[in-house]
Amino acid sequence: MRGSVHLQSVDGTMIQLYDYQAQMVQETYQTLKQGVQTALIIAVMGAGKTITSAWIMRDCVRKQGRVLFLVSFTCLIDQTLETLALLDVSATALQGKRRLDPNAPVVVASIQTISKRLSQGLTLDQLFGPEPFRLIVADEAHLLAFDQVYQVVVTHYSKATQLGLTATPWRLSKQEWMGQKYQRAIVGPQPTEIIKRGKALPCRGFQVEGMFELDSLDIQAGDYAEPQMTQIATRPEALDQVIDEWQRISGDRPTLMVGAGVKQAVKQAERFNQRGFPAAVIHGGTSKTKRTDIFNAVGRGDLQVICSVGCLTAGFNLPPLASILYIRATKSKALFHQTGGRAARIHPGKTDYHLLDFGGNLHRHGDPMGEQDYNIWGDSDGGSDWEMVKLCPDCQNKVNIFLARCTSCGYLFSEHTEDDETLDQLDLLKLTEYFDEPTAQKFNEIRQWRRRAWRDNLSPDKPIEHFQATYGYIPPDEWFKGATAVARSQYVNYLDRHSKRGRWADNWIQYHLHLEFGP
């Protein structure tokens, strides 16, 4: 496979690291050789932060160093232990009732368990033994690095090298940024590069205004008040609007709904089930066994929608998911990208995933799978600076998101008249496709290439092949509609000239007619 290298594990087994993973390892070593004690590894979901950090931990153990790997989500513990085992690294866990092996060179520990043990009067030396750690690794470092107990740990082991791992190096508070905790950043490939390499899928975003009036929401702990959002989102008309728009755009895609409160998740799941779409709820109190049953049901196709709140962020991996239903607003770019990127995993039959945003988050924070600014030196949790546009479903014209009428064909994005609107009703608008500048460029390119293929009498497959080679995926069917702007009869003759005679010729012609003229 392009871009991969093989490195040897302790027992001689060949473990594959991709070139960008090996580069992150090497850049980390070069940074530490310069005397840097704290460094942050930034890599998007799918880039392999776990295997990359495991490789570094393995090398530390080879040099007789002891390693502490800290997690804020217990679901990450087993994942880390399994990865270390692949590299023949002996590791133990400190979490809940698990028995710690004091002789293991790597300790994978829950920060919550450490906090609880310290509150019970134990010291860190009593917890982990007298031998100090040479390396401390913090997973989900955008959270852990600002945790009080984490600061107690790194202060106690002050001579240890500190490495942080994150895909989202942003803080909600403008008074906090990752550069306060880490001297240097080692930045992995951008999401767009991971997509091009076939390790993740692009996000196709859709957005709507009107679900939440953000100016009227209270702010609690720096973010929009969840009780108020829950109250708005559980109105009967809101519950139905969500399902109507989800059904219109995402159809039968397995879906994760992200909400603001448990009541909202329960109510939305109930409404899904009432309307014939199997749904289940997962929240912070859902048992591991119940979660596994729900995940397996989605994998079998017995369950279509998971309604969640306050969980299913880090360490959550369910590749069949192909749509994210985001029914809340958040000021946190890190939270939105963590949850909004959960469906980017590759899976047979998936070419992209949908992100249906009812909270204006795409406008504030941008595409989770788009190009990112990984600056760690302040002002890093702001929204996107791209000009925001939506796509007219009638003429494919790009229109500013705040306009109610298409400037080209006059299409009304709201189907409601002034007589329908009252202070007690939600302004229920339709979701429209999200276009930031890079997405708009791709949209324009495939349409230009499609017209050029027609003009130069080239196969209509050529623009698609070129787009896939350039960006790593096939663009959505809707982007092609009306690109050549010719009569159907002319286009049929054009397709007939380029059709490869055989059993699939008619299907090929019908496919391209569908792209050009719609269903």
CATH superfamily placement of the largest domain: P-loop containing nucleotide triphosphate hydrolases
Output the radius of gyration. Answer: 25 Å
* End-to-end Cα distance: 37 Å
CATH hierarchy, class of the largest domain: Alpha Beta
The proportion of residues forming helix, as a percent range, comes to 25-40%
**Count of domains:** 3
The unreliable regions are: 1-6, 382-389, 414-426
- Briefly note the structural class of the backbone: alpha/beta
What fraction of residues sit in β-strands? 15-25%
Q: Under CATH, the topology of the largest domain is which?
A: Rossmann fold
CATH architectural label of the largest domain: 3-Layer(aba) Sandwich
Q: Major sheet: size, sense and barrel closure?
A: 9 strands, mixed
Give the count of helical stretches.
18
How many strands in all?
A: 20
Overall pLDDT: 88
Q: Globular, elongated, flat, extended or rod-shaped: what is the shape?
A: globular
What is the strand arrangement across the widest sheet?
14-15-13-16-17-10-20-18-19
3D structure, described in words:
The structure is a single chain. The chain has 519 residues and is α/β, with parallel strands linked by helices. The chain folds into 3 domains: 4-195, Rossmann fold (3-Layer(aba) Sandwich), CATH 3.40.50.300; 201-368 and 387-435, 3-Layer(aba) Sandwich (Rossmann fold), CATH 3.40.50.300; 440-517, no CATH class. The chain has 18 helices and 20 strands. It has helices at residues 19-33, 49-62, 75-86, 111-119, 124-128, 141-144, 148-156, 191-196, 226-233, 236-250, 262-274, 288-300, 333-340, 361-365, 437-455, 461-471, 488-498, 505-517, and strands at residues 4-8, 14-18, 38-42, 67-71, 91-94, 106-110, 135-138, 161-166, 184-187, 203-207, 219-220, 223-224, 255-258, 279-282, 305-308, 323-326, 353-357, 389-391, 398-400, 432-435. The strands form 4 sheets. A 9-stranded mixed sheet has the order 14-15-13-16-17-10-20-18-19, with helices on both faces. A hairpin with a 6-residue loop joins strand 18 (389-391) and strand 19. The protein starts with a strand and ends with a helix. Residues 1-6, 382-389 and 414-426 have low confidence and may be disordered.
